Amino acid sequence: MLITLEGLDGSGKTTAWEALHDAYPDAVFTREPTESWYGDAVYRSMSDEDADPLAELFLFTADHADHLSRVIRPALEAGKLVVSDRYSDSRFAYQAATLSETDLTRPLEYVQGIHAAFSRPPDATIYLDVDPETAAARAGATNKFERAEYLAAVRDNYEELIEANPERFVRIDATEPPEDVVEMVERSVERLLRERERRDGA
Ligand SMILES: Nc1ncnc2c1ncn2[C@@H]1O[C@H](COP(=O)(O)OP(=O)(O)O)[C@@H](O)[C@H]1O
Ligand SMILES: Cc1cn([C@H]2C[C@H](O)[C@@H](COP(=O)(O)OP(=O)(O)O)O2)c(=O)[nH]c1=O
């Protein structure tokens, strides 16, 4: 089963992802951008204020393709629980926002279309919901994406994705204290696994 954690920068994804390690020692914990050289290329692009948004989308997507074949698919085939800190929804939400400044029409549909041909959608996605101002303040604006105005556009895209796939998303109020957010995430994962077992056993 593939569970992804999504949300704005500073929403607490990494805090929750780390807390889950103890509860699920046999699970595979992974993240995007990855630690491969494709991931290095992504970070290089993120540090370039003038990076071409379309080129940047394809760098992120190349990293995802490698992540899928090297980590995600083998782990799922081995029957593992996989928990990924960011995954394809990050591309849909972030790159669609960056691409909205280009001539490309309907960027959200465009980015989703690219993935449809080869990607593997998550079974469930935990969305840590936080307002863009809190997100930008917590993240400390260390990269070009961590600005409140841009994050507001990203959040609108996440809302569109949730509206289109309500059964896949679990929304958690990430403005609550970290220990409460972690507990809500842990409970959600427990419930998702229980539901999965029940479905598989049926
Ligand atoms: N619920 C929370 N309330 C206040 N601060 C938080 C909360 N969750 C995380 N933080 C802090 O915000 C920063 C970003 O958290 P992190 O887990 O790295 O978020 P993300 O991975 O979503 O960017 C860290 O300094 C972390 O301690
Ligand atoms: C995976 C992914 C990340 N991003 C952005 C979101 C973050 O600003 C940055 C990831 O940097 P990172 O330092 O890992 O931030 P976080 O802890 O919030 O995940 O890359 C995209 O724009 N598209 C993507 O597909």
UniProtKB/TrEMBL annotation:
<comment type="similarity">
    <text>Belongs to the thymidylate kinase family.</text>
</comment>
<keyword id="KW-0547">Nucleotide-binding</keyword>
<protein>
    <recommendedName>
        <fullName>Probable thymidylate kinase</fullName>
        <ecNumber>2.7.4.9</ecNumber>
    </recommendedName>
</protein>
<dbReference type="GO" id="GO:0006235">
    <property type="term" value="P:dTTP biosynthetic process"/>
</dbReference>
<dbReference type="InterPro" id="IPR027417">
    <property type="entry name" value="P-loop_NTPase"/>
</dbReference>
<dbReference type="Pfam" id="PF02223">
    <property type="entry name" value="Thymidylate_kin"/>
</dbReference>
<keyword id="KW-0545">Nucleotide biosynthesis</keyword>
<dbReference type="GO" id="GO:0005737">
    <property type="term" value="C:cytoplasm"/>
</dbReference>
<dbReference type="InterPro" id="IPR039430">
    <property type="entry name" value="Thymidylate_kin-like_dom"/>
</dbReference>
<keyword id="KW-0808">Transferase</keyword>
<keyword id="KW-0418">Kinase</keyword>
<feature type="binding site">
    <location>
        <begin position="7"/>
        <end position="14"/>
    </location>
    <ligand>
        <name>ATP</name>
    </ligand>
</feature>
<dbReference type="GO" id="GO:0005524">
    <property type="term" value="F:ATP binding"/>
</dbReference>
<keyword id="KW-0067">ATP-binding</keyword>
<dbReference type="InterPro" id="IPR018094">
    <property type="entry name" value="Thymidylate_kinase"/>
</dbReference>
<dbReference type="GO" id="GO:0006233">
    <property type="term" value="P:dTDP biosynthetic process"/>
</dbReference>
<dbReference type="GO" id="GO:0004798">
    <property type="term" value="F:dTMP kinase activity"/>
</dbReference>
<dbReference type="GO" id="GO:0006227">
    <property type="term" value="P:dUDP biosynthetic process"/>
</dbReference>
<feature type="domain" description="Thymidylate kinase-like">
    <location>
        <begin position="5"/>
        <end position="184"/>
    </location>
</feature>
